[in-house]
């Protein structure tokens, strides 16, 4: 009987394994065919790798206009988050709560979310990566929109992958089964997490209910889900179901340049185009988004070819987009503009019935997409459905603005309409109209709709200055810059001349930070604001100026300014990319461990070239020192002076710092009153032994080093030490000093040095037995008495002064 059961069990198990293997083969082949174009791009090396990071989910900012997530004029977007590999994103130990099985990946339109998941699916299908995944089912929300009838989860999967005939619950309900749901923002129906419960994968229901129950864990409670979406739609998923939150970052600086060279082909022209983009911080930020980077590369390729190589004629964003569409079919462009104007709050996918509403035939749209793929793309999907997409959401905003300008040109009340749009933008703190209004101002100039003397510009400038501390001011600033690249320059010059703030609600100090630091041709190199009531808000304004392309500041002192950890978040952000700053002094500010953590985010960046960091009396403890140590381990090349005095970092914090930072490469280390003992001196002594050591000043005063600690230091100093200044109150005057021999040869002590030596030698607790040195009146004396020491030192001083008197006076 047992034998029969064993044979039956073996048969069932073998059959299950065989059916799973068959499913994997079928699914892998289907994915290879589905992503064939992506595979060809991958093989040609034209597809740049995606960059992802883990980040906290802040629901309060998810509704903001997408350009705010890439435009670093908003300091919140400069925060550094830990990088994430897809393999790490798709890993789970399954020890979490059963409801948390969903990973969500955020990203602006066109940043590469779909490319990331498709590449992942292709690499799994080709068995190159993700070997721990059993089955992987990529589904797109825009294709789910096509399914109007009720069906079961099994039928849903077989609709997308008809090759999979043998799907069942035992195959699907597994920790290593992943469902990829791409593009939540493109789904027409909201996800209702209060919908009816569905537990059976064979039970038929509406698609949105199936998706919701899959996320809730009612369907296949062991399987995992990976959802991609633009930021605003992420609020549909309750945080109680989220296992991880990640974000696609777009192109790095290196990838932007690589993409420009690939598109343009000619290295010299590519470099000119890259320089063109870097002149405008706004354009440079937007180039993180691959489609916008492609648009700029294609337009600027033609622009730099035609302009005089000795002249520089920069284009703004509106001019770039205008050049992009000017050779296209103007009739279709106009129709797309009217459609875009009606679609201001819609997603980026255009179905065939949407085209009919815009009086555009399918054939016209298809032909236009082939003529100008950067403006309109064609995509085929489920059941041979064809959809179209704007090349990027900003294309839709530009076309909508073009249609709005067309309407304005037929309306004599142009100022009133523009003023209304500015007011609407101010009433929307999320900035939903920022990009649209920016193109409006740019097109007003390009089409000469209004004269520069029109009151619209004075009104907008007034609104900007009155709201200068709000996010809306950044949007209005970009609008004005689109019309006039020198906007507000006269106001800055007026402030500098008269020292009167242009806005009554804004203090002179707040206005001065961005004004002084960001003015073109700024020459300020050192700024000492010590012991002023700057506060965190002031540092925020200061950081804005520091981030400006014209800022040349090298030294910033904010000691005793009442700043907290919040201010360090702004400064840490700036440190991460502003390489010109060499010295930062935050002494006597209660920044604590959290503040140092924010600073460490910037210090770890290779773009941070800070040479001097002073953090004396900042309430820093061991935890904060750990953040600092980790940051300096990643970026160890530049810091030469570090002051952590009057912070209770203790031996644990100090030893972690010394273990990760080679202090022998520093010039000055201040750790006065840091709660150190002899344990901390071991690493310091070893650093002093290094022949190439550059450490010249070391302050360990007011620490309980005792004789053992000082002995460790002396062991280091005995070797190759180049130390010029050592402060340690324990010195030779400890109660039971074991320092028996001191060699001062080849040191230019001079009178001042010998006098300081006497302070220790006069102590009754000094047990120094041997002192020698070529500059002293004796070469070697043993068992010195207090009288011997006093006489020797006096003779030394007399001899030193006699030599100075006998020598001729220097011409200097």
Automatic annotation (TrEMBL):
Residues 101-230 form the NACHT domain. Pfam families: LRR_6, NACHT. One of its GO terms (molecular function) is ATP binding. Residues 1-18 form the signal peptide. InterPro entries: Leu-rich_rpt, LRR_dom_sf, NACHT_NTPase, NLR, P-loop_NTPase. Coiled coil: none annotated. Keywords: ATP-binding, Leucine-rich repeat, Nucleotide-binding, Repeat, Signal. The keyword Repeat applies. This is NLR family CARD domain-containing protein 3 CARD15-like protein. It comes from Collichthys lucidus (Big head croaker).
């Amino acid at each position: 009987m047992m034998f029969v059961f064993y044979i039956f069990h073996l048969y069932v198990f073998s059959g299950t394994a065989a059916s799973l293997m068959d499913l994997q083969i079928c699914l892998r082949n289907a994915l290879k065919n589905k992503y064939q174009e992506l595979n060809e791009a991958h093989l040609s090396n034209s597809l740049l790798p995606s960059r992802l990071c883990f980040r906290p989910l802040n629901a309060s900012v998810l509704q903001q206009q997408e350009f705010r997530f890439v435009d670093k004029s908003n300091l919140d977007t400069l925060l550094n988050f830990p990088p994430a590999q897809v393999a790490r994103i798709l890993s789970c130990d399954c020890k979490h709560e059963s409801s948390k099985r969903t990973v969500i990946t955020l990203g602006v339109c066109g940043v590469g979310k779909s490319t990331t998941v498709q590449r992942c699916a292709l690499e799994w299908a080709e068995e190159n990566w993700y070997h721990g995944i059993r089955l992987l089912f990529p589904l797109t929300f825009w294709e789910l929109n096509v399914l109007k009838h009720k069906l079961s989860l099994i039928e849903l999967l077989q609709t997308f992958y008809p090759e999979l005939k043998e799907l069942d619950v035992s195959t699907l309900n597994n920790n290593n089964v992943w469902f990829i749901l791409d593009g939540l923002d493109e789904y027409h129906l909201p996800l209702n997490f209060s919908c009816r419960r569905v537990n059976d994968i064979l039970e038929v229901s509406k698609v949105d209910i199936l998706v919701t129950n899959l996320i809730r864990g009612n369907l296949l409670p062991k399987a995992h889900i990976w959802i991609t979406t633009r930021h605003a739609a992420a609020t549909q998923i309750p945080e109680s179901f989220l296992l991880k939150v990640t974000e696609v970052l777009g192109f790095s600086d290196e990838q932007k340049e690589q993409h420009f060279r690939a598109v343009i082909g000619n290295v010299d022209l590519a470099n000119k185009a890259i320089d063109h983009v870097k002149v405008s911080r706004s354009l440079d930020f937007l180039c993180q988004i691959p489609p916008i980077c492609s648009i700029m590369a294609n337009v600027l390729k033609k622009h730099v070819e035609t302009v005089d190589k000795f002249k520089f004629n920069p284009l703004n964003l509106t001019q770039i987009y205008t050049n992009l569409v000017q050779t296209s079919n103007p009739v279709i462009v106009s129709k797309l503009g009217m459609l875009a104007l009606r679609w201001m709050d819609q997603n980026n996918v255009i179905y065939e019935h949407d085209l009919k509403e815009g009086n555009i035939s399918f054939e016209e749209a298809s032909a236009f997409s082939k003529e100008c793929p950067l403006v309109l793309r064609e995509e085929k999907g489920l059941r041979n459905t064809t959809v179209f997409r704007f090349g990027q959401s900003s294309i839709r905003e530009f076309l909508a603005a073009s249609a709005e300008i067309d309407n304005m040109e037929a309306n004599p009340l142009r100022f009133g309409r523009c003023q209304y749009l500015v007011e609407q933008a101010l009433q929307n703190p999320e900035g939903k109209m920022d990009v649209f209004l920016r193109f409006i101002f740019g097109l007003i100039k390009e089409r000469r709709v209004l004269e520069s003397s029109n009151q619209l510009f004075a009104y907008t400038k007034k609104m900007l200055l009155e709201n200068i501390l709000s996010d809306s001011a950044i949007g209005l600033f970009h609008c004005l810059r689109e019309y006039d690249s020198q906007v507000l320059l006269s106001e800055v010059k007026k402030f500098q001349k008269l020292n009167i703030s242009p806005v009554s609600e804004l203090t002179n100090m707040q206005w001065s930070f961005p004004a002084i630091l960001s003015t073109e041709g700024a020459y300020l190199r050192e700024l000492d604001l010590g012991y002023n009531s700057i506060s965190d808000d002031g540092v925020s304004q200061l950081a804005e100026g520091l981030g400006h392309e014209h800022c040349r500041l090298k030294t910033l002192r904010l000691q005793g300014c009442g700043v907290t950890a919040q201010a360090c978040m702004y400064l840490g952000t700036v440190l991460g990319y502003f390489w010109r700053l060499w010295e930062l002094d935050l002494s006597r500010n209660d920044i604590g461990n959290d503040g140092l953590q924010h600073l460490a985010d910037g210090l770890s960046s290779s773009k941070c070239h800070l040479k001097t960091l002073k953090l004396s009396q900042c309430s820093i403890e061991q935890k904060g020192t750990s953040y600092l140590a980790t940051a300096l381990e990643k970026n160890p090349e530049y810091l030469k002076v570090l002051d952590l005095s009057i912070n209770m970092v203790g031996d644990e914090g100090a030893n972690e710092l010394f273990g990760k930072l080679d202090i022998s490469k520093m010039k000055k280390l201040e750790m006065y009153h840091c709660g150190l003992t002899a344990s901390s001196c071991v690493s310091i002594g070893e650093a002093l032994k290094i022949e190439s050591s550059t450490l010249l000043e070391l302050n360990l005063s007011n620490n309980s080093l005792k004789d053992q600690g000082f002995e460790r230091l002396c062991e280091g100093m005995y070797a190759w030490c180049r130390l010029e200044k050592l402060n340690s109150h324990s010195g030779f005057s400890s109660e039971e000093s074991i320092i028996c021999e001191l060699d001062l040869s080849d040191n230019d002590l001079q009178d001042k040095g010998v006098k300081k030596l006497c302070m220790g030698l006069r102590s009754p607790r000094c047990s120094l037995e041997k002192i020698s040195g070529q500059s002293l009146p004796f070469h070697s004396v043993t068992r010195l008495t207090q009288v011997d020491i006093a006489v020797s030192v006096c003779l030394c001083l007399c001899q030193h002064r006699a030599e100075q008197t006998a020598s001729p006076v220097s011409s200097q």
